[in-house]
Amino acid sequence: MRPMSDPTDLAPDPALFDKVVNLAKRRGFAFQSADIYGGFRSTYDYGPLGVLMLRNVKNAWWRSMVQMRDDVVGLDAAILSPPAIWAASGHLTTFSDPLVDCRNCKERLRADQIGDTCPNCGADNLPDSVKCVQCARPLGQSCPKCKVPLAIDARFCPNCGEVLKKTCAKCGTVAEAGTKFCPNCGTGL
User: Fold this and answer.
1) Residue 30 neighbours by CB distance under 10 Å
2) Cβ–Cβ < 8 Å for 20, 32
């Protein structure tokens, strides 16, 4: 390791990540998944010491966020849910969390939790346009067939299967929604 003469010297060591990974392997904290087969990008398996460390971190979080509070209870539920649950809760057809960006302090706020002024800076010049929390697209962009709100890079509607299209502003060519450039003139879509 190189000596750090000045605490403000934050220039990263290019080999630091490799050094940390090798130390974690040698000490039994973590190993890259499928390491002997070339590895599996961005995934790691915990070794004997890593499992203990992970358990200690989880227990400390559980103690401070659940056990030491009177207003929180623990719940362990499935991460994956059948589509019927999402439909029954309204998430597939009506759910939206519109956002407003304050022009003064640039803070992004939920539109349903603010009035006419920004709670951060007090500015009263909030824009009229609101954006979806999940994808930051302006509201009103939804499937032309079934009107379900869509993700930012949606190529088809997950609800009805409609293939989405974009129209080039320069030449009017219609292309699939996932296309970044017009196939006719090369203009960015």
Assistant:
1) 20
2) no
Structural domains in the chain (count): 3
Distance (Å, whole) CA 153 – CA 133: 14
Same domain, 130 and 147: no
Mark whether 137 and 147 lie in a shared domain: no
149 DSSP 8-state letter: B
What does the pLDDT look like over 140-162, one tens digit per residue? Answer: 456 777 666 665 556 666 667 77
Digit-coded pLDDT (tens) for 89-121: 777 766 666 677 777 887 777 766 676 677 778
Measured between alpha carbons, how far is residue 155 from residues 140, 151, 152 in Å? 17, 9, 9
Q: What is the pTM of this model?
A: 0.38
Q: Range of 42's domain?
A: 16-67
Do 53 and 94 fall within a single domain?
no
Q: Same domain, yes or no, for 131 and 153? A: no
Of 148, 153, 144, give the one whose Cα is nearest residue 96: 148
Q: Which residue has the tokens 């939206």?
A: 96
Q: Which residues contact 38 (CB under 8 A, 6 or more apart)?
A: none
- Residue 114 covered by a domain: yes
- Would you call 72 helix, strand, or coil by DSSP? coil
In a domain, 11, yes or no: no
Dist CA 168 CA 188 (whole Å): 8
DSSP one-letter code for 155:
S
